[in-house]
Amino acid sequence: TIFHTREAEAMLKYLLLAAAAGVAAFSSAPKLWEEGIPNENPHERKFITVDPDGSMCVDPYLVPRGAVPPFDEIPPTGINGSRYYTCTADPPPANIAYYEAGDPTSTTKIIFTHGSPSRAHIWRYFTKDICHLGHCIMADNVGFGDSDKPPVRYGVIDMCQYFTAYVDAVAPNAEKIIFVAHDWGAMMTFDYAAKHKDKVIALTMFEGFAVGWPEVPNSIDGQYYSLVAGAEGERLVIEENFWLNLIQLGSNRPLPQELLDIYYAPWQTEDSRWPIRQFHLDIPIGTHPAHSYNWMESNFAALRHSLELQILVFQKVDENTPLTFPPDSVHAARFKSAFSKLDYVVLGAGNHFSQEDYPTLLAQTMAKHIEKFA
User: What residue stretches are annotated with the AB hydrolase-1 domain (predicted)?
Assistant: First the structure.
């Protein structure tokens, strides 16, 4: 319980710093990043149209945007006790933007996934160390980057529906699929892997949301909910666009403006920011929302004895470092006790968006795991 509470409080502190528009002060910071990281993406952007199967959506409980009930009025369990909705009953087709590298004829597909509020651009520097091992594909999640923003709910199940359709579309003849995941990308890859054990042979991830924090006290749960899901949270995300501060706050190095502009580009209007808010309403802090927590726990249980998993863990630079998966976290403890086929690697001092600080270190460490299965 102490671990749960400390991690939840750290997340709250992280979000509150961003809400105050505070970005890290770098003038006296040590050089905790690699030099010469390029801003540009060397790969050609492509698009593919995907049509998700709505059958994954069960018992939808739909509430219009902005109609989130107060936290203390939410029943603790049950699908109709969910905070807002479970999914969109009939998700429409969408164009997904993606990049690829390596041999497109390879039947080994290495698929990179990102979280929020980032995009596939965050993996631009990884291909040189990994993509000789197979065909690499990295996409902007639906609602993110240059991908379409269809009128869906952008909860856990929605994102999984589109991700499943995308993987099936870009890797129809794959004999082996290896995932590289970060943040919410871990949740989507776990869902696909649990349903396609015959194809998914390995996964490497860091700072991933793949399980909930079931023992977080209601006081912390309520604070997080109020900040993100309540009326003030909606204002901060939609009107103030505060979530984008997390990109800089989650990096050790001061990101140049031209790079920040690439990350900020998809979120120029208030309406474009709904995917960020809606997606983050599904983070299972405590056991709320129930459908999200149960969905993720089910996938976690299904993979614990079958998936070849590599987890890369960074240590905190200091107490203000917004890591969700440090070595002493309950996430780390749960994975180490649950997965029998686990390569657990503790790296140096890092941050949540360490792709922007240590791309070579991360890519080469991941490649050592991937080459065992490619």
Answer: 110-357
SS3 category, 71: helix
Q: Cα 100 to chain center, whole Å?
A: 20
Query: Would you call 194 helix, strand, or coil by DSSP?
Result: helix
Provide the sign of the torsion angle of the four alpha carbons 189, 195, 200, 203, taken in this order: positive
3 state DSSP class of 342: strand
- Give the torsion sign (CA, 143, 148, 153, 158): negative
- Distance between CA atoms of 117 and 39, rounded to whole angstroms? 17
Stretches in the chain below the pLDDT threshold 70: 1-31, 58-86, 213-231, 286, 320, 322
Cis peptide leading into 91, omega within 30 of 0? Answer: no
Enclosing domain of residue 175: 2-20+39-370
Nearest one of 84, 141, 147 to 282, comparing CA atoms: 84
Please report the pLDDT score of residue 214 as a whole number. Answer: 60
3-state secondary structure of 84: coil
pTM, rounded to two decimals: 0.86
Identify which of 206, 149, 213, 229 has the alpha carbon closest to the alpha carbon of residue 369: 206
Each residue of 190-249: pLDDT tens digit?
A: 999 999 999 999 999 998 888 876 655 555 555 666 666 666 777 878 888 887 888 888
Q: Positive or negative, the Cα torsion across 251, 255, 257, 261?
A: negative
**Tokens read off for 247:** 């990109």
Residue 183: inside a domain: yes
**Number of domains the chain contains:** 1
